[in-house]
Amino acid sequence: MKLKKFVKDNKLLTITFVLYVATFFYNRGIFISSLEMAKYFFIQLIEIMPAVMIISALISVWVPQEVIIKHFGKASGFKGRLLSLLIGSFSAGPIYAAFPVAQSLYFKGASIANVTIIISAWAVIKWVMFMVESSFLGLAFASVRYALTIPAILFVLGPLMGKLVHDEDMVHEEKHEVEIGSVEYYLNLLPNKNCGACGHKNCANFAKLLSEGKVSMDKCIFFKKGEEEEEKEVPVLEER
Amino acid sequence: MNTIILIALAAFFLIWSVIKDRKKTKRVWKIARGTFLSMISELVAIMALVALVLAYTPPSTIKYLLGNTNSFLSSVYGALIGTVTIIPAFIAFPLAKSLYHSGANLVAIAAFITTLTMVGFATMPIEIRHFGKKFTLYRNFLSFLLALVIAFGMGMIL
C-alpha cells in the first residue's frame, strides 16, 4: 500500500525509474553513461537548491512588501528592469533555481516583466559562463551574443511578457487563512507560554476548549494583560 | 564561483535571521524545507530523465543535425535541440567548438547555445507550478523566437 501511494505521488520518478531499469537490460553502456550524467545534474542540484530555497524563504519572511513593490513593481520602470537583470546575472545555477526566488519576489509585488527578466538573466547571463564561452567559441562570438541577448531581454522579452500576461493568469500565493474560532486561531492569540494559569495543562489544550466554546478567553492571564489593558485593572481592584 | 557566493549569502542571512528573530527564522526554515521537499522528487525525476535522453542521443547525433548544410534548417534544429534538452556546459561548449571548427553554421550554434539556457522544455512542469500555464508557455515561446532572432542577428554581424 505504501508503495502504491509513493508511485501515485511520484509518477514521473516512477516512470524514470522504470526506464532506467529497462535501459539497464537493453544497453549497459547507455545505462552507465546516463548515470554519470545524472550524477552531474544531482550534484548541481544539491549544491544549489538548498541555498536557493533558504534565500526565497528569507525574502518572503523578512523583506517588506513595500520594498519589493518600490524596486521591482509595475512602477519601478527601467531601474527595476536593470536591477532584475543584475540579480539574475549574479546568481548561480540552472534556470529551475530561478523559479523559487522569482516566485517569492512576485508574491511580494514584483511585476511580471521583472520576474521574466530575472528568470531569463538567471538562465542566460552568467559572467563565469561568459568566460567559458569566449574561451571555447572566441571573444567575438560570446560578446556579440551577450550584446544582443541583454537588450532582447530588457527591452523585448520583459516588457512584452508584462503586456501579454496578466496577474489573473498567474499562480497565486496560497494564503492559508486561519478560520476564526478554530483551534489554530486561538492558539495564535495565546502567548504559548504553557504556564497553566488558566487551569489547563498547556496552551494547546486551552485553545481546543476555547474553540469548542467550553471556556472563556479571560481565563488566560496573559491575554488579559495584553489585550484588555484597562479592563484588567477593574476586576483586580474588585477582588481586593 | 557563483555557487559558493550563493551558498555563503544564504548562510550569512540565515545566521543574521537567527540572531535577529528566532521565531521568524523558524518560519523561514519551515518554508524553505517545505518548498525544497515539494520540488525535489520532480527535479530528481526530470534530471534523471534528461540524463537518460542525452545518453541515448550521443553528441554525434546533435553534431549531425547542427551540421546540416541548409543554414535555416540547421538553425531551427539547433534551437529545437537547445529547447528540449538541458546540456551541461562542459559538454555544450566543447561540442559547439568542434562544430564551429568543422565548419558548421554559426547561426545554428548561436541558436543552440541561447535556447539551451533560456528555453526549458524539460523544466516546464516546474515552471507551470510556480507561475501558471500562460506565463510559462508565453515565456518559453517568446524566448525561443528571440533566440532565433539573436542567432540570425549574429549571423549578420559575425
Walk me through the structure:
The complex is a heterodimer of chains A (240) and B (158). Chain A has 240 residues and is mainly α. Chain A has 3 domains: 1-53, no CATH class; 63-175, no CATH class; 183-239, 3-methyladenine DNA Glycosylase II, Chain A, domain 3 (Orthogonal Bundle). Chain A has helices spanning 2-9, 11-26, 28-62, 65-72, 77-89, 98-107, 112-124, 127-137, 139-164, 183-189, 203-211, 221-227, 229-239. In chain A, α10 crosses α11 (203-211). Chain A is flat, with a radius of gyration of 27 Å. The relative contact order of chain A is 0.06. Residues 226-240 of chain A have low confidence and may be disordered. By secondary structure, chain B is mostly helical. Chain B folds into 2 domains: 1-48; 57-158, no CATH class. Chain B is built from 8 helices and no strands. Chain B has helices at 2-20, 22-56, 59-66, 71-84, 89-101, 106-118, 124-131, 133-157.
In short:
The complex is a heterodimer of chains A (240) and B (158). By secondary structure, chain A is mostly helical.
Layout of strands and helices, then pairs:
The complex is a heterodimer of chains A (240) and B (158).
Chain A: H1 2-9, H2 11-26, H3 28-62, H4 65-72, H5 77-89, H6 98-107, H7 112-124, H8 127-137, H9 139-164, H10 183-189, H11 203-211, H12 221-227, H13 229-239
Chain B: H1 2-20, H2 22-56, H3 59-66, H4 71-84, H5 89-101, H6 106-118, H7 124-131, H8 133-157
Helix pairs in contact in B: 1-2, 4-6, 4-8, 6-8, 7-8
